[in-house]
């Protein structure tokens, strides 16, 4: 039982780390998309 409990904890740690990395990747992708959309907008700053 002790082995299964430690394995469960390890699995939870791995899953939480993977989801954190996935959220970070998603966030950076969103930032790139937002920056791209902002650069497409006809702003006086981007034209100069």
N-to-C SSE series? HH
Number of helix segments?
2
| Mean pLDDT score | 81
Class of secondary structure makeup: mainly alpha
**Overall geometry:** rod-shaped
The low-pLDDT segments are none
Sheet-strand content, in percent, reads under 5%
Summarize the structure.
By secondary structure, the protein is mainly α. The chain has 2 helices and no strands.
What does this structure look like?
With 48 residues, the protein is mostly helical. Helix content is 90%, strand content 0%. The chain has 2 helices and no strands. It has helices spanning 2-40, 44-47. The longest helix is centred in the middle third of the chain and has 39 residues, at 2-40. The N and C termini lie far apart (68 Å).
Helix and strand topology:
Blueprint: H1 2-40, H2 44-47
Structure keywords:
single chain, 48 residues, mainly alpha
